[in-house]
Amino acid sequence: MYNLSDLETFIAVVENKGVLAAAREQRLSPATVSHRLSKLERELATVLVFRDSRRVRLSPAGEIFYTRVGAIIEALHDAEHSIGARSSSVSGLLRVTMPPWVFSKYVMPKLNEFEQAYPELKLDFLITDHFVNVVDDAQDVAIRVGKLNDSGLLSRKIVNNSRILCAAPSYIEKYGMPENLTQLSEHYWVCLPWQRQLKLFDEHKKIHTFNAKTRFTISNSDNMTQAAIAGHGIAIKSKIAINEDLKNGILVEVMPGVMAQDDAPVWFLRPQNSLTTRKTDVFYDFMKSLFLSCE
Amino acid sequence: MYNLSDLETFIAVVENKGVLAAAREQRLSPATVSHRLSKLERELATVLVFRDSRRVRLSPAGEIFYTRVGAIIEALHDAEHSIGARSSSVSGLLRVTMPPWVFSKYVMPKLNEFEQAYPELKLDFLITDHFVNVVDDAQDVAIRVGKLNDSGLLSRKIVNNSRILCAAPSYIEKYGMPENLTQLSEHYWVCLPWQRQLKLFDEHKKIHTFNAKTRFTISNSDNMTQAAIAGHGIAIKSKIAINEDLKNGILVEVMPGVMAQDDAPVWFLRPQNSLTTRKTDVFYDFMKSLFLSCE
DNA sequence: TTTCAATGTTTAATATTTTCGAATGAAGCT
DNA sequence: AGCTTCATTCGAAAATATTAAACATTGAAA
């Protein structure tokens, strides 16, 4: 039967695109690599790599096997780590999706530190505000803000957060600071497309629903903040997305406490049935650390 | 570095609760098994099994490692199979959830054949009509009927199907066969709890919503069919769940074509990121074969 | 066309690992 | 204490892995 080392050698051959290069990487003689590879193929009774003396390329079966075995070896390292064995480094690819403001305001500034701590871990960011259908396609982690819909994912709360209304001082100066719902409903809004229906408390804490009056909607939360700062209207924002802008006076809060559904924690989501948890755990710790100051 | 065979021996020791028994199962000498085990522990620098001369028991680390490695070995066999290598049998555990009527009417009668074809595959059935939160907890496969909510699962359609209204002849005799919506709304219904709101076409194909008049609801589709057969009222049923009862005259269809949302195909769902697909593939083929005659 | 350089494979000797029977030890049962 | 049942250790033998060196193939340069 073939060995783990045979599998690892196969991976190395694929990733280094050659027997010689793989041998160098693994500190083995080319003969060994060649031997291991042919043993693997013999025992699987399947050709994994076509090789002529000049090039090496994967067979269709090899393609599939490479993907699978890569994940398996990774899962094994992960299992080793989970029992405290080996000081194996975190490596591989982690696919993460999150809203733009989380990325630009919290992740980006500290990304260097993360890269230095885990140099062998590659990150694929899918940055979008769209809430549905994001994790479907093989994402490892999703950062979500607000109420979770029940999605069969494991969720961990990263930080509490609430949504507030805000606007630029210049806008307020021009249109006045609203004092009640009637006035508020006359104002212009800067919204994400799916935020147009608003649920707000009146002075008796009764919930009113109305549609926001908009000149435009923007489907990216960062750009929408820019629009609010530029004075285009009142915006619904996560508190921790604009706390600095509030402090600097670039934005001011409008009618505090008026939002009916203002609870919008930041969540960390991942599929439950993954064989590898180390990468996601490490990334969770990183995300958690970014929001520590927001508690 | 340790080997695949070391891992497999470890698994065998755990599952046979002893070195000697494991050696017998693997057709090795006890000395070899002992060697392999200690090599594995040495290289992981972790104690996996506490052993005195009488018994063997897993350490906490061993417990974790056992679970992980089991899944990994299985994933590896699966990978081998996926490239057409080896004639490795399908083994392990498959957790399936499905509605009662699918199980009792379609799966049960053919279960023997499946067991004979894949004697090493254990099945865990979670039989329930409840639609939400079922796949959350480590289910491998879910059989669902009706519209799918977007859940991040891979879906394959097993068979087309529609929902119809039906009742027992004895019930119709007593209360009359309804001819229009007004009459229908006066009838008694036998429902699942979440079916009480009905959307029905009137004679102009306009959709009307009303709440079913019920004497009771039952949260199990099989028992609810029994209630309908016993003459307790009109029921909404999947056509393929009661086709035989219709043929035998135990149930009769009521106002064909009146249901507004009658499309209710049977779906096969599974998580996308599983490392093992062979088990689920095999089970999909089985499920598909059960409904062939319904096409 | 010939030659060279780069790459992969084979061969056969060498080194390492694995295996097993037998001996040893440890613990429960009578 | 004596017997039985397991697991481990030992040492020799068997199996497997590794390597250098020779060989083969091919693309490109001369």
From TrEMBL, chains A, B:
Taxonomically, the superkingdom here is Bacteria
- A Pfam family assignment: HTH_1
Determine if Transcription regulation is one of this entry's keywords.
yes
The family database entries (SUPFAM superfamilies) matched by this protein are listed as: Periplasmic binding protein-like II, Winged helix' DNA-binding domain
Q: Where is the HTH lysR-type domain?
A: 1-59
Q: Which PROSITE patterns match?
A: HTH_LYSR
State the InterPro entries in the record.
Answer: LysR-type_TF_proteobact-type, LysR_HTH_N, LysR_subst-bd, WH-like_DNA-bd_sf, WH_DNA-bd_sf
Biological process annotations from GO: DNA-templated transcription
- What keywords does the record list, in alphabetical order? DNA-binding, Transcription, Transcription regulation
Q: Which GO terms describe its molecular function?
A: DNA-binding transcription factor activity; sequence-specific DNA binding
Tell me its family: Belongs to the LysR transcriptional regulatory family.
Name of the protein in its database record: LysR family transcriptional regulator
Q: What is the lineage of its organism?
A: Bacteria, Pseudomonadati, Pseudomonadota, Gammaproteobacteria, Alteromonadales
